[in-house]
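Reopening this ticket.

The earlier resolution said the output was attached, but the attachment link was broken on my side. Pasting everything inline this time so it's all in one place.
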Amino acid sequence: MDKEDGLFTTVVGSWPLSNNHENMLRVFTDLIQLGIDYPCYPQLLSMTHQFLSPLSKEIPQLEEINEKFYLYDDFEVPKQTCALEYGEFIVNFLNEHPALKASIKGTKACLTGPFTLTFEVILKNKIAEGLKPIIFEEPRAVMLDWVVDKFANIIKQIAAAYSDMGIDIISCDEPILGLLVGRKTLFHSEDFIINTINKAISGIKGLSSVHVCGRISPNLRDLLLKTNVKILDHEFSTNEQNFKIFEKKHFQETDKFLALGTVESKFAPMDTKKVEDYVESVNFLKGYIKKGIEQYGRENLIIKPDCGFYPLKVFGEKDGYEIAIKKVKNMVLALNEIK
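Inline output:
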């Protein structure tokens, strides 16, 4: 994709609905009909369980107990690639709905990155020996280079398979990197993190993306700019300080895009507010997007929500989904009016 194709819309992935096929059909249809250029398959379950649960059935040393994951020993990377049903959902949906397929520019898939996955894996037995917990109460797999590396190989397999299915944008979601890379880098060298991300995305033929939530430190920004990732995807609506972190020069004369978080995706209910009160107006979003265009250049930008909408489940599925979908609708309308 060339820079002249910039300023398109996409979403991060998660939605505040129960995990079933009917809801996946509902969300994906709504996204296309609202005018999202690159709809992502609807992620309706925990981003870590989505991959760790099937892996625990393929890796004998990885066990799921009460929705927690424990690694007991060294393991082989499974030959069987897991979690492909989400990419297959996209392929089957578009084959069955050619008119909807004709109305979009392409598709997106979201994968959970190796650092975020291993952050959720608790170490047990000998592989935990000598490791002093930092941040958490027990040693985690993210502390060991060789475990993270093996998970990068696992994600590489899935990403390559999705790429072979024809999915255009494949995101390696790494929200935990905002915690691991600040003024200092925890557990690993910067070179290891760069090489690990590059390995995870190395099978992607289209656009690779990395999504990191929260405030981005200058160190993390520079690290991500050194990777082979094509799209840097971040929150800006909730974390406006990120406008001071990224500059136009970071994307000029490169093949990288900045995915600009444009609507808030996580907030608490307030008794005094109605559904509409949580939704940014089209006029407000036009001003916000224009700010991004002025600062970064329209050719370098992708417009999307801050993060996934799963946190809106606190509103209940009916109101949570209504809030989320209205935000997306206004985001698309605002960009269309600017164009």
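Reporter confirms the inline version is readable. Residues 317-338 form the longest helix (22 residues). The two ends are 19 Å apart (CA to CA).
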